[in-house]
Each structure stands twice: as structure tokens, then as C-alpha cells.
């Protein structure tokens, strides 16, 4: 085990650290994270309008159209502002003007949305357009970078206000980027959003499949176990896909159609990472009952944060990072919970995620809300905490015994 950990640390970790620092990864990740507050805001109104209580639904029925406005203007048009947020964040990461990157990406995305009559269509404003928005932002910001690097920009003499020179410096590269997109859509008639959807379909299928989500969860935990924030590295790939899943699930839910995706945002958040990565909330409960003083104290200190999904105090306090005893359960308990949850959702025994809830939502309550009040999902989440505790228990007792053996000689020497 120690040799395996060293191999991961020396060979695998540096590669993922470089990926985490890649400006494209940073730009996409930060851009997608910028959308989270707004999708949560829209999801709150989904809960208000669709809460599973007949009396409540009858009460708000006259106001349902009005209460759907926040959803329609957030999750309903998510691709439009994903184009801006990724364009902005990516331009910042590549040392370009962020505002120009965001606005240019937004305009480029909108050009691609006209139909064959050259009228703006809204078919890809929602979840289906996220990948088009992402690629459009990359293309537009890359054009800004290439033109700036080769000095193909308008430059003004000193004394001209920065806002003026900055705006006009984007004129040539921006015009070139938008002209290319105009030619592709309007002159050549290419349906770019449809082509992009087909291009990404294998990756979308993979992350909604059981093998795909298991690989994703496994590597997240493996990276955490050597001190690298696994989600930060993999979210550049995962977040756009999982966000498109939850948006599509919400659309299907509101339309009364079958929920298409299992691994939407909320799947790992509310059913795998119970108390944080590694499902460590159950471990914190065990620590609170420990006979070893330092573990007991640490557990009580970590409990409030753990209930809201913050587990860095546990991960680095025990520590779990680079700890041969705790590495196995930390990696494989989430894999086991993912397996159970995936099977139950695939069999429609528990509900699938249809509402995006804040990541700090406590376990059980988060599962209940993300499935829009599905009681079996909440019960399963509570059982998961018990299962995690049972699986952590033997490893925790080994850790506890080692700690107690280390403290006994200290007590003897003090006496």
C-alpha cells in the first residue's frame, strides 16, 4: 500500500497538478462555477412550484406562471450566460481582457443560434447549448490571444483613456472571430449546436453510465488521498456535463416526462460525498465516540462543518491524506455508495436529481430536496451514512488503537 501511495504521489499527482493549473481548465472550471448561484436561485423556485403537497400546489396554482420566471431566466437560458462566464474566466486565465472575452463569446454564441430563416431560435438556450457555449468561448478567446500575440490589433498613443484603447484593441480579433462564426452558420448553413451535441455525445454517455461515474468518483478520491483537490481537477470536464444533466432533468420534470439522467448535479453531492469527499460524516460520528482523546476532540470540532459538507479538517487533521490505514475506505466507500445509488435510481426505486441544491446542504435533507421531495431517496441517504460508518469502523479502530499506543508511552514518561 505504501509503495502504491508513493507511486501515485510521484507519478500521477504531478500530472494532475499540471492539469489543475492549465489556463483552459481553470477558465472552464471558474466559468461554470460562476453559474452555480443562479442555477440554485432558479431551483429554489422549482421547489416552491413543484413541492409534493396537494394543498400547497392548490395554494400557489394562480401564481405558478409568475413563479416560473426565475427558473426560465436562469436554468432555462443557462447556455447564454455560460458563453459569457467561460469567455470571461478563460480570457482572464489567458491574460486577455476578461470583459471583451465574455461579451465576444456571448455574441458569437448568439450568432450560432439563428435558424435557416436567420431568425434567433431558442432551442439551444438551455442545457442542450452548454457545450456549444463552451467551444464558442474557447474559440473567441483564442482569437483574442492569437491577434494580441502577433500585434494584429489597433493601438492608440499614450494619453488615450484605457477604456477606449482596450475596447478598440478587441475590434480586429473580435470581428475576425464573429465573421468566422457568421460564415459557418449563415453562409455555409452549418448547424453548429447540433454538430457539437453529436461530438460530445460519447463523453455525455460515458459520464451518465455506471462505469463512467465510477471512474470519475474513483479518481476524485484517489487524488484527494494524496492531497490534491480531486473535484477541482476533474470539474472542468465534469461540471459542464453534470450541469447539462440537471438542467435537462429539470426540464423533463416540469414537462411531466421521464427523468433522463442519473448522474446529474446532486448525484455525488447528495448521495456520495456525505459530509464531504470520502463520505466522512460517518467517520466524524465515530471520532466523537472515540476513547482516544485527540480523535474525540477533533471529531467534535469537525462535526458542525461536516454536517454542511466541509471536511478538510478531517482530511488533513487525522490525516487521511497519505495515510495507508484510511486511504482504502476513503477511496472505496464513495465507490460503493455510488454503486448502490446508481442501481436504485436506474431501477426507479429512488428519485433522480431534478433540482440543484447548494453544496452545503446537509445529508438526507439535500437528497430529499434534490429529488423534489422523494422520501425513498432521503431514507436511502440516511442508510448510506450508516453503511459508511460500518465500513469505516474497522479501519477507524486500527487508527484509534495506534493512537492510543502512541500516547501511552508519553503518559508513562510524564509520570
How would you describe the overall organization of this protein?
The protein has 415 residues and is mainly α. The protein contains 21 helices and no strands.
What secondary-structure arrangement, pairings included, does this model have?
Blueprint: H1 2-21, H2 23-33, H3 36-50, H4 54-60, H5 64-67, H6 69-72, H7 78-93, H8 98-111, H9 130-149, H10 162-169, H11 171-187, H12 192-207, H13 210-225, H14 230-254, H15 267-271, H16 281-288, H17 293-306, H18 312-317, H19 324-346, H20 365-370, H21 375-414
Helix pairs in contact: 2-7, 2-14, 7-8, 7-9, 8-9, 8-11, 9-11, 13-14, 13-19, 16-17, 16-21, 19-21
Catalogue the unreliable spans: none
Radius of gyration: 25 Å
**Biggest β-sheet, characterized?**
none
Which outline best applies?
globular
Strand portion, in percent? under 5%
Indicate the structural class: mainly alpha
Helix percent reads over 70%
In short:
The chain is mostly helical and 415 residues long. The chain contains 21 helices and no strands.
Record keyword descriptors for this entry:
415 residues; mainly alpha; 21 helices; 0% strand; globular
Amino acid at each position: 500500500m505504501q509503495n502504491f501511495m508513493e507511486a501515485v504521489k510521484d507519478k500521477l499527482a504531478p500530472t494532475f497538478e499540471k492539469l489543475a493549473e492549465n489556463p483552459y481548465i481553470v477558465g472552464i472550471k471558474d466559468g461554470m462555477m460562476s453559474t452555480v448561484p443562479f442555477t440554485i436561485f432558479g431551483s429554489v423556485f422549482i421547489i416552491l412550484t413543484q413541492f409534493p403537497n396537494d394543498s400547497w400546489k392548490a395554494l400557489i396554482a394562480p401564481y405558478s406562471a409568475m413563479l416560473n420566471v426565475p427558473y426560465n431566466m436562469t436554468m432555462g437560458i443557462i447556455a447564454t450566460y455560460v458563453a459569457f462566464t467561460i469567455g470571461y474566466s478563460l480570457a482572464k486565465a489567458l491574460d486577455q481582457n476578461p470583459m471583451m472575452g465574455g461579451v465576444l463569446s456571448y455574441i458569437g454564441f448568439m450568432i450560432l443560434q439563428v435558424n435557416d430563416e436567420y431568425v434567433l431560435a431558442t432551442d439551444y438556450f438551455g442545457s442542450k447549448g452548454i457545450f456549444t457555449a463552451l467551444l464558442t468561448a474557447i474559440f473567441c478567446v483564442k482569437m483574442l490571444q492569437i491577434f494580441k500575440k502577433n500585434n494584429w490589433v489597433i493601438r492608440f498613443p499614450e494619453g488615450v483613456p484605457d477604456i477606449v484603447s482596450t475596447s478598440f484593441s478587441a475590434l480586429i480579433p473580435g470581428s475576425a472571430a464573429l465573421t468566422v462564426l457568421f460564415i459557418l452558420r449563415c453562409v455555409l448553413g452549418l448547424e453548429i449546436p447540433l454538430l457539437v451535441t453529436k461530438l460530445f455525445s460519447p463523453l455525455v454517455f460515458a459520464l451518465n453510465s455506471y462505469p463512467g461515474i465510477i471512474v470519475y468518483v474513483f479518481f476524485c478520491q484517489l487524488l484527494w488521498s494524496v492531497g490534491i483537490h480531486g473535484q477541482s481537477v476533474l470539474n472542468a470536464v465534469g461540471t459542464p456535463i453534470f450541469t447539462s444533466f440537471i438542467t435537462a432533468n429539470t426540464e423533463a420534470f416540469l414537462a411531466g416526462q421521464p427523468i433522463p439522467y442519473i448522474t446529474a448535479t446532486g448525484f455525488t453531492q447528495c448521495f456520495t460525498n456525505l459530509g464531504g469527499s470520502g463520505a466522512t460524516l460517518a467517520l466524524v460520528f465515530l471520532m466523537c465516540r472515540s476513547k482516544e482523546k485527540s480523535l474525540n476532540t477533533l471529531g467534535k470540532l469537525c462535526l458542525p462543518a461536516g454536517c454542511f459538507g466541509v471536511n478538510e479538517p478531517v482530511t488533513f487533521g487525522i490525516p487521511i491524506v497519505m495515510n495507508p490505514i484510511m486511504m482504502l475506505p476513503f477511496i472505496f466507500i464513495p465507490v460503493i455508495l455510488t454503486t448502490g445509488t446508481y442501481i436504485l435510481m436506474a431501477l426507479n426505486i429512488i428519485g433522480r436529481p431534478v433540482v440543484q441544491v447548494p453544496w452545503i446542504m446537509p445529508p438526507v435533507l439535500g437528497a430529499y430536496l434534490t429529488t423534489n421531495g422523494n422520501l425513498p431517496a432521503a431514507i436511502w441517504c440516511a442508510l448510506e451514512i450508516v453503511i459508511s460508518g460500518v465500513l469505516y469502523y474497522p479501519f477507524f479502530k486500527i487508527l484509534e488503537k495506534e493512537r492510543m499506543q502512541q500516547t501511552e508511552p508519553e503518559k508513562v514518561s510524564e509520570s
